[in-house]
Specification:
Layout: E1 14-18, E2 23-24, H1 25-32, H2 38-46, E3 50-52, E4 55-56, E5 63-64, E6 69-73, E7 87-92, E8 97-101
Antiparallel strand pairs: 1-6, 2-5, 3-4, 3-6, 7-8
């Protein structure tokens, strides 16, 4: 009697869509997900979970051509903003964070 091996299968991290005709990204998403509102589709772009040919794309008017692959990531957290009652973020970009903190809060430096 032969033993069967069972392997756990991981859930796909992305939903893949292949572009069949030229369109903008927003038009394409609306066609693939007709039940989703325009606000919901824009939130996908804002949350940076939409990839076009493996590159994050945030602009709704990004042009798509036939043969490109659009991916939607499943596992990104919906709310990634920093929340703390003692520290508030005044400004943030890709390279700098400016925070206002209480005087008794510790400061941390990572090198």
């Amino acid at each position: 009697m032969k033993k069967e091996k069972y392997f756990a299968q991981a859930r796909n991290k992305y939903t893949d869509y292949r572009v069949q005709k030229a369109a903008t990204l927003m038009e394409f998403l609306k066609e693939k997900m007709p039940e989703a509102s325009k606000t919901k589709l824009k939130s996908f772009l804002t949350r940076r979970i939409v990839y076009v040919d493996k590159n994050i794309t945030t602009h709704p008017d990004h042009p798509l051509e036939r043969g490109m692959v659009v991916q939607i990531e499943h596992n990104k957290q919906k709310n990634t903003e920093f929340q703390n009652k003692d520290i508030s973020v005044l400004y943030e970009d890709a390279y700098l964070i400016v925070a206002d903190k209480k005087s008794w809060c510790y400061k941390y430096s990572y090198r």
